[in-house]
């Protein structure tokens, strides 16, 4: 299987959801109504952004899979013990969520020992096939991984990118041959036909200077995708997300889309709409 295979599975119209906003994360703001509110990871299919199974003083990069949230520790103990946290409940100032009622519209698969694709290239292929903003979740083996991880809980009303020495104390990572599970969101923020949903997607898509993407708040050309992807690194190769248990997970990272894969298997959820999350 040396070609990228994108297969349509259904025409289901997915309405995906969000809590808070990534703007809260970037500006270190915790809305009063979210400071102590806890959500159940088991009530959604997938999710990612910023969260903690503990409290707001330990918010980190996170991902929700298999009814658990995995997040990176950002309190003062981060460098003195395992930075990974996980649990069935979480707090968050901003989270993108895929409801349990969602159905994948496409599958993505690729495997080759001598050719690799960047996430950005794969996302372009999916977007050309689907023609819609989409969320994606799956497993991959990376040839090259580039990532950054927030290391201090953004709760002090400071812009994290304007205070990089405080919030990104650890260097950019560049690793070879890493197994991951990932969840992400992608859209063409310059497509005038998608103005309504792209406005809503600003709750999760943003300009990340480390990801070297265009600023979606500015006027940008159609055809330039903006993505946001998180991942857990795994201690062993795993093909399907349901096979992952906490003992397999090493850490949570913000994955840059120039990271390259030689194997990937994923589900793609095209977005008909995006609405605030209401926990049932």
Short synopsis of the structure:
This protein is mostly beta strands and 280 residues long. It has one domain (5-275): 2-Layer Sandwich (60s Ribosomal Protein L30, Chain: A), CATH 3.30.1330. It has four helices and 15 strands.
Labels describing this entry:
mainly beta; 15-stranded mixed β-sheet; 15 strands; 4 helices; 280 residues; 10% helix; single chain; 60s Ribosomal Protein L30, Chain: A
Blueprint of the fold:
Layout: E1 5-8, E2 14-20, H1 22-26, E3 39-40, E4 44-52, E5 60-65, E6 68-72, E7 84-87, E8 89-99, E9 106-111, E10 117-118, H2 119-130, E11 134-148, H3 164-167, E12 173-188, H4 195-201, E13 225-234, E14 249-255, E15 260-276
Parallel strand pairs: 2-15
Antiparallel strand pairs: 1-9, 2-8, 3-8, 4-5, 4-8, 5-6, 6-7, 9-15, 10-15, 11-12, 11-14, 11-15, 12-13, 13-14
């Amino acid at each position: 299987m040396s070609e990228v295979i994108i297969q349509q599975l259904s025409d289901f119209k997915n309405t995906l959801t969000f809590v808070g906003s990534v703007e809260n994360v970037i500006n270190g703001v915790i809305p009063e109504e979210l400071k102590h509110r806890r959500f159940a990871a088991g009530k959604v299919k997938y999710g990612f952004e910023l969260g903690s199974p503990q409290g707001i003083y330990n918010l980190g990069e996170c991902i929700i899979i298999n009814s658990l949230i995995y997040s990176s520790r950002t309190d003062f103990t981060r460098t003195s013990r395992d930075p990974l946290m996980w649990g069935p409940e979480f707090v968050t100032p901003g989270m993108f969520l895929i409801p349990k009622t969602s159905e994948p519209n496409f599958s993505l698969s690729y495997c080759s020992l001598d050719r690799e694709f960047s996430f950005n290239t794969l996302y372009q292929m999916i977007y050309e096939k689907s023609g819609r903003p989409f969320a994606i979740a799956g497993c991959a083996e990376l040839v090259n991984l580039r990532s950054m991880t927030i290391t201090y809980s953004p709760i002090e009303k400071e812009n994290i990118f304007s205070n990089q020495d405080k919030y990104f104390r650890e260097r950019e990572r560049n690793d070879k041959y890493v197994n991951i599970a990932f969840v992400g969101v992608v859209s063409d923020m310059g497509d005038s036909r998608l103005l309504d949903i792209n406005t809503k997607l600003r709750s999760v898509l943003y300009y990340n200077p480390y990801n070297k993407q265009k600023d979606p708040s500015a006027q940008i050309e159609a055809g330039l995708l903006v993505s946001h992807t998180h991942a857990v690194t795994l201690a062993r190769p795993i093909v399907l997300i349901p096979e992952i248990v906490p003992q397999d997970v090493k850490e949570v990272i913000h994955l840059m889309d120039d990271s390259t894969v030689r194997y990937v298997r994923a589900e793609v959820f095209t977005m008909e709409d995006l609405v605030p999350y209401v926990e049932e």
